[in-house]
User: Fold these one by one.
Assistant:
Number 1:
Amino acid sequence: MGDLGIDTTITGGQGRYAATMSRHWEIWGPQGGYVASFALRAAGAHCGLPRPASIVGHFLGVASFDEPIDIACTTLRSAKTAQSVHVSITQQDRPIFDALVWGTVTGLQGLEHQYATMPHFPSWSELPTIQERLESVGEKWEPWFPFWENFEQRPPEWRTDWNERAPGSQPPEWSQWLRYAPTSSFDDPWLDACRLLIIVDVGSWPSVQAHHNVADIIAPSIDLACEFHRIDPKAEWLFALGTSPSSDGGLIATHQSVFADDGRLLASGVSQLLCRPTRGQRG
């Protein structure tokens, strides 16, 4: 188990930063949202504004855990209330991730509404964890990747025939109650936004796999966009909803939403996945 605050630490200043990725966040290599979190934290340090608004990025290569990464930030636009930052992550001069990040000031006055509705599922407090569900039938939870050990998970729905289900037997959707461990939330808005960003990215493939149930294809994200609607460290438990409205020509569209346990939409985003063959690996 890792700790998000420690495992996304950056050093440096004046637009040049460095970091080392932790294997605790491995899933087909460093998880995409985890990689993007370094760009988000660097953009926050560079612009100095108190609140992240959005990030849009392209995944350009798979990073190694064995070498440090370099992060370069450049201001593209700076105004009284907002700043746009270009972030480039490289490793040994090899491109890994490029992003555009908006930061804003706080206390802005404007229109307010919430139209998004969280699906009607039991609260996390009414549900057992994955470990408790499996232990009740004499089984032990063994996650496919170290990444999943960073959360306490309480599935709102449970299937005992998950691995044997027929392809197409359920829609391309994934939902989960998640709480980060050992530190569930963070006072730093840029760091707290990272926990939303990671969930927005990770909700993509599980929604696809729910519908297809394949072992010979993986589909890493080639891009990721996330809007941070509300930053609230008090919202420790997060409800993740991932859907895949369309897939064709080796490209898979995915949409994700992250809600607080009181129903407020905290973040939403999209990512496009690119299908690749694999040798029996599952995620």
Number 2:
Amino acid sequence: MKKLYFTGLIGLIVFEIMNVYFIMPMPGSQHMNSIDLAYFLYTWRWAFRMFFALLLLIGLVKSQWKKKWLPLALLLPLLVVIYMFNFVMSADHMFLQPQELIMKSAKENETDTARLVMGVVYNNEAKAYPIQYLGYHHHIQDSVGGKPVLVTYCTVCRTGRIYEPIVNGKHERFRLVGMDHFNAMIEDETTKSWWRQVTGEAITGKLKGSQLPELSFKQTSLDQWLKLYPSSLVMQADPAFTDSYDSTLLYESGASRKELTGTDSLSWKRKSWVVGVKHNGLTKAYDWNQLVQQRIVYDKIGSDSVIVVLAEDGKSFFALVQPRGQTLVLKQDTLMGKDIRYTIDGRGIDTTSSLHPVKAFQEFWHSWETFQPQTLRY
């Protein structure tokens, strides 16, 4: 009977560890293709727990213990593991959602304008979401121009994405689950499927293979965003999480050297920055260091000529299709053509026409090449 007790005890400890191991950044866990196993363990977690707990209970009651305190004392490591892996190390307990989403005008804004933001415009409404706050929350739900939006950010991949949180025609709620291949995963409330942050795809569960609609956005400094969209609203710090937000600029500036979120200053290393673009079904990566040196990169993707440009602030970047027969040059933060000018994000200054935007993202190279395996490299 003591064998049943120890089988139940060890089984519970091992299960609680494995239930979290595959979806959190632990040694070796993020290099495995183990998402289906992780989802199986999580889905059947209460069945596993009840099975091992039953064995433990039978062994505890039926066995003859010379030292009555011993079996109870041995439960202490189990309680520690349960607490650590289900509360301390659980993703949605480590990174909480805002208690209130505070948006203010540029005039009322209290967020440092040197901070990076994810800016989005829809139906003539502009909003900016600082990465300083998104990096902690990982995802927030809001609406822009009447459209519901799911604004997401993964600091380990340096990936920002905005999706429409509509699943099977229903406005869905999500929670943070953990990560797979170093990218954050979220779970929908209805089907409990797991969705990859960087692609918006359900990678396991009932909706596996489904896709969230993706919305375009720009990553800029808040200062640059407000110059382009002075009527924009800006997300503010939630007072309940002031101590949780990154108070430094180390991560955003690339000065951090932390193992998971730090930056490699060299080019084309795992933690190097790239600007990844998506255009007409093709993907391509541009070295951030080269962009900083040149400020404008001319290229061709498919049949289109494209430019990737960096603003004078050294933070705000844009990718645009260059008009046929024209070569645009960058002067300060204005794109100049023959007898025509555009703002750095492609809107006409002395013309009603605008340049066609290209989706562009700043990411760690390891993320872009992992989730865009067919990518070209400039």
Number 3:
Amino acid sequence: MRLLYDYFRSSSAYRVRIALNLKNLTYEKIPVHLLKDGGEQFTLKYKTLNPQALVPTYVEDSIHDKAFTQSLSIIELIEELHPEPALLPKCYAARAWVRSFAQAVACDIQPLNNLRVLKYLTEQFKINEEQKNTWYKHWIAEGFLALETMLNNHHADRGDFCHGNTPTIADVCLIPQVYNAIRYKCDLNAYPNIMKIYTHCESLPAFMEAFPKES
């Protein structure tokens, strides 16, 4: 049995859903609504599993009495437990590139625009909706410009996906971030490589089935 404590709009949880689908692994989603009743992630029961009060949290019964947090760590755990189909290339240099691309999204773009940061900006600094959207779009533009450049520089090894012709953790991280950028009406015309990969991935069952929808 595999359990994924999940919020449908969380890009971090979205990543793990994609990874599990690409591995053809069955799992049960346990919804943790980040807005309902002040945030279900703050309940004592959930914070016992995840002291950061964030999603996702992952449990797999082959590893007893352990709950795992942080999406990239969870994805690499899944990769180690279920190595096929691989989400990391065999070449060490390619693995490093894929990880750097994934971390550029997960460590540098997404944290600046996640729910708790936007909530803090609105509640503590009283910024309005227009200012919040300006903040969001600034960090998307800065981050996506870097990602687009990385893809351009990687053109010899790029295929249908960020690296080669099979999905890797780079794509697993990219697609949720593009989804969020579209939801916030960011102008993405300057990133043709990103959008080509996004369009291709969104046509594939593993990505389609992970698409955010409220339980």
